[in-house]
Amino acid sequence: MGYSQESNNQVVKEKLFTRDYILMIVTNGLLFFGFQFYPSGLPPFLKTLGADDIVLGFLTSLIAIPAILSRLIAGNLLDRYGRFKVLCLGLFSMTVLAYFLGVFQTVFMILLIRGLHGLAWGVSATGSATAVTDFIPRSRLGEGMGYFSLSCSLAMAIAPALALSLPFEWMFRLGTIFFAGAFILCLFVRYKKIEANRQEKRSLIEKRSLMPSFVVLCSNASYGAIVTFVALFGLERGISHVGMFFALYALALMVSRPYVGKLVDRIGCKAAIGPGIIALLLSLVLLSFVFNTFTFLACGVLYGLAQGAVMSGTQTLAILRAPKDRLGAANATYSSCFDLGLGVGALIFGFVAEYTGYGLMFLICGLTQVIPYVVLKLDKEPDAKDCTH
After folding, report:
1. How sure is the predictor about 168, in pLDDT bands with cuts at 50, 70 and 90?
2. Full residue range of the structural domain in which residue 350 is found
């Protein structure tokens, strides 16, 4: 499956870069660009309105909690009613709410709209990630999702810096424009028809996708610790160019995901996940002992490569293990665990750092990666029933 046989007996790969696949990549890129304006751009704006640090901290949970809930509901709706209606609803809601953010500029109204934005974000992001899987040949799923994820990585690398460099009113305008562009583009995608029994009650969680989802929860918990504390840790150790850690991490992640995606298609998902977890563990343990800039930045590169391997393998496995009529639920299960890991990691390792300091906290954080590695090894299921490996 996944290959065609020509008359000269050469095996030819199925086409990946189709019209609809490219449209979905651009749609997702515009969605992520719009979304990534606000996490960095809104806090300074709220400060000018008189918001304190407690309110700014509350702002993050106003996105995360509704997003996780709406992802699970959206996954079920995507499988029951198809991709078009759900994705369009999510993107249209993101556009309207972004416009209202620029209109109702009070602390209370911005917090209220951001809570609703969290709901719309969960629907949009899950819808986009599910719709694109319909256009990727199963034999090239790892590679296809790797290229698709580049749109997310580019947005995360560029949009926050762009938002901070613009006047506040332009942040609101551009956010609305990006979301509107994503909505308009999604109207031109030729979605595949989904056959589903709408009378059948289905779980919001796809059980077959739980193992890879748990692994990414653990790996992203470490990123919660990284994104929250690595800058403070670097300054504590007297390291210069602390911000370069994230730039090199993003670059390594962007390089590794498509490459590892191709590798996953050839040798299997678990063959990439296992070494990725080990590299993740090593990068965090090494980070806990660094006292110079070069080693500090090298840890950022190794951590990015490791995360790329874990994400590529787990996302592909979560999709491949699910039945074709449960791809929405599989994506929702995976992405909810991805988001949950980030929040839980920042919270748990924040408490750990309070009592141990940053260095020992990163050592403990690295050693916790033994847990997903053991879970992976204890899993006796093959990569997927219908996988081509």
Report:
1. confident
2. 207-378
